[in-house]
Structures are given as C-alpha cells and as structure tokens.
Amino acid sequence: MTTQTTKGTALITGASSGIGAIYADRLAEQGYDLILVARDAAGLKAKANTLAGAGRAVRTVAADLTKAADIADVAAILRDDETITLLLNNAGIGATAPLLDSDIDALEAMIDLNVTALTRLTHAVAPSFARRGHGTIINVSSVTALAPELFNGVYAASKAYVLTMTQALQHELAAKGIRVQAVLPGVTSTTFWATAGLPVSNLPTSIVMTPDQLVDAALAGLAQGELVTIPSLPDAGDWAALENARKALAPNLSKSAPAARYTGTIAQQA
Question: Which one of 23, 32, 155, 161 is the catalytic residue?
Fold first, then answer.
C-alpha cells in the first residue's frame, strides 16, 4: 500500500542493479513512486521486492534499450503517464579496448543505448513536462566526457554527447520549469566495469567510489541546483573555470574570414 503523499513517479533506466538500483532506493525514500526499466526481468523483480516495504508504488518494465521496439515501448509510457515527474537516463554500457581492437557491432549497440535511447526517451517526456511546467531529467554521463584519452574513444564520445545535450536542454527547457542535470561519475564499483572489460578489482582503490556515495552526491548536487555534478571533483571552481573558458570562445567561433594564421604571409611561413 502506498503512502498518501508523493512527488510523482520516477522512471529509471538501468534500474536492476548498480547506480540505477541505488537511485531507486533513494528516490523511493524521497517520496517518488517508481517505474524500473532494465533488460534483466529477474533482477527487476528482485529489486521491486526489496522496495516492497518502502510504501511506494513500483512498476517494472523489462526492455532492451538497444532495440528500437523496446525504446518505443518505454517512450510511450513517458508520453502517456502523466504521473511521471522525473526521468533518470541511467542505462549505459561501456568499453575499454581501443578502436582497432573493438567490435564495430558492439560499438554501435553502445551508441544505440548511450545516445539514441537517451535521446528518444528525453524527447518523449519533455513535451509533457513543458506543458505542466515542471519535471526533472537526470542524465548519467561520465568523467570520460572531459577526458577522451581514457578508455575507449567511442564510449567517451557517447558520454560527451550526454553532457552536451544536457547543457543544451538547460538552455532550451529551464524557462519552462524543467530541471536538468548531468551526472559525471568516475570509476564506480559496479559490474559495469567488468562488462566493459576492466574489472574494478584491477584498478587502484583510490579512484573507485561506491554507488551509494555516487548517488548520494549526485542527489545533493541536484538539490543544490547544479547543472553538472562531478562527485569526485573537490573544487567546484575548477568546473566553473572550464565553463567560463569555453564560453569566452563564443564571440570568436564564427566570423566572416579565417584567422590570420591561416592566411597570407603567416600561413605561408608556417
């Protein structure tokens, strides 16, 4: 039986284990009913059972978000269920091998999940949020969005897309009452890394965060109104400095003529 007060419903992708499962615990504690989405039907059922005593309504949806039909099914839920007030795009897969050692079909499946599914689900829910004047979209990116030299370049690029899209959504949707947040985890002790080909046990403990710590920090960042939350970053001023430097480029990114170093004598000397 659910309690009387609710913050609405949070739909969480990749909810059967790891970061998504911890988010489910925390959001239930905060007063959200839940729609849990993942490929692992048994894992979803087990997670729903652990939430049975939380006093929240919990629905599970078994879906493989690398498949267009399953993405469409979840998108339909986001369009049609007016109780949904929060979308957490958490589902993702990674890779650690360099491009030349990677299987192209696996890389395409990673793009389908990390980029295409996230985009379609966000597109499905945003109109409803805008119409109602409120809603929250949390996109789980990665610190590799800022450090493409680490691990697999296609993975890093997919997470850079998530970060850039979230920043653009802030520009487009904030005035409509929609909150957006990009969360950039570092290495987190989940099965994600073993699946990607590099078990966490092979990494220095000094760079590994627990999923509980990660989610608690991310939700603290959301409560503080952060657009971008990097749980491991000690000084938020470092991110602000990077953003300010990026924005300072804006007046010079598009002009009617090439820069002097590409023309005339300077270019010929080079």
Answer: 155
